[in-house]
Amino acid sequence: MLSTRTLRVWSWLHKWTSLVSTLFMLVLCITGLPLIFHHEIGGWLGTEVVAPELPRGAQRVSLDRVMEVAKQRFPTKGGMFVSQEPDDDKIWYVTMSDTPTSETDLKQVAVDARSGAALAEPKLDRGLIYVLYTLHVELFAGTAGKLFLGFMALLMLIAIVSGVVLYAPFMRKLRFGEVRRERSTRLKWLDLHNLLGIATLTWAVVVGATGMINTWADLVVQYWRNDQVAEMVAPYRGLPPLKELGSLEKAVAAARAQEPGMRIGFIAFPGTAFSSEHHYGVFFRGSEPLTSRLFKPVLVDAVTGEVTASRTPPWYLSALLISQPLHFGDYAGAPMQWIWFVLDLITIIVLGSGLYLWWVKQRAPKPARRSAAVEAVR
Amino acid sequence: MNNNSNLNVWGWPIVLAVLCAVGLFCGLWGDGWWDWAGWIGVGVPTAMAVWFGFRGRGAPRP
Which region among A22-31, A50-59, A365-374, B47-56 has the lowest average model confidence (pLDDT)? Predict the structure, then answer.
């Protein structure tokens, strides 16, 4: 059995890591709740782009044409990314920017992949989903906000681990799932806090840890660029930046020939975080549930349209990519989304009851303020 | 503390934790039956949390 002293340390750790992070975790849980259904909400709000039905096997326009169409909408901007949704290859989303590394004033044009018609200009910097997403990811505070939330996630993970350690002394005299409702409000919420916390333990750890990993995304991609991309494009080092880009269609066709059977996830233009100064980065997805999350990059010379290099992503990039579905819950279909929804609600209750239990203890007269865990084992 | 009380305290939490971990993994691994395994694995601990949370278990048997 844990000694009283050890219990005190764990109890202190649980109290302070929770207190510091709870408010931010509540913001994350509340903004995260609608984000689970962002596609569906976009559909209701009419912001989701839908491609018209055309006969099966309709011709597809060349990507050079797609870029022309996008360019007509934003003549002063250049290409940054071209992407498609995993489940819909009828639409190309072209992201345009002033420079390849711009972070503001990005524009997007959705182009029908078969007719070449401009379908919509999805707004990347306004709307309900944008506000919720930006709050959730960075609290409107850029990279600093991301890293701050990552640190809060770390505190919450410590709070979870310490909570598990404290679970045993509280449960000594209770059966699993027992909630003492009649004795006092405090006891009822204490039992609920313990029950809901322990039952959702694995999920909370996984979503917390993958959320923390996701806050490092920019850094991981940057590292990959300096590490593997730099090696792959070594012969191009020192060459002047490109003035004119070669055919995107030709480049993508060359990349496709290299990776038959895979689907395009997105294409990064030269100079962006996902490519080199002289290449189109073509990122392929596999067709299995798991491999569809893991991108395989092919770098294509942006002038000649010939493949320069292709490498399976390193472990750290794969870890980042696998962290995404495990955080978002956007896999295994709608039932998983709803389970995520319920688990998010339960987490809100755990956070709220934890705050309440701390508050009640604060207000209690001095002698009763002895650590509840220590008390429980007496 | 004896092994029996250890098992009383940690039995269900361990079962639910492992079930959830397996579910999270299965859902990601494949489609069809794998998705079902994912829903059950993650769903059962969730359902138990909701069930006991609302209904609770009464006082221990005398």
Answer: A365-374
B57 touches chain A (CB under 8 A): yes
Verify whether the Cβ–Cβ distance B16 to A172 is below 8 Å.
Answer: no
Which of A174, A184, A202, A205 to probe by mutation at the B interface, max B CB count within 10 Å?
A202
Q: Of A328, A279, A345, A339, nearest to A307 (Cα)?
A: A279
Digit-coded pLDDT (tens) for A245-292:
999 999 999 999 999 889 999 999 999 999 999 999 999 998 888 889
Residue A357 burial (CB count, 10 A): 18
Confidence of residue A204 (pLDDT cuts 50, 70, 90): very high
Q: Is A150 exposed, middle or buried (0-12, 13-18, 19+ CB in 10 A)?
A: middle
Cβ–Cβ contact A25 with B under 8 A: no
Contact assessment for residue A159 and residue A11, using Cβ atoms and an 8 Å cutoff: no
Residues 6 or more apart in contact with residue A210 via CB below 8 angstroms: A323, A324, A326, A327
Q: Taking CB atoms and an 8 Å limit, are A200 and B46 in contact across chains?
A: yes
Question: Residue B22 has which token pair?
Answer: 């397996």
Q: Is A246 helix (H, G, I), strand (E, B) or coil?
A: coil
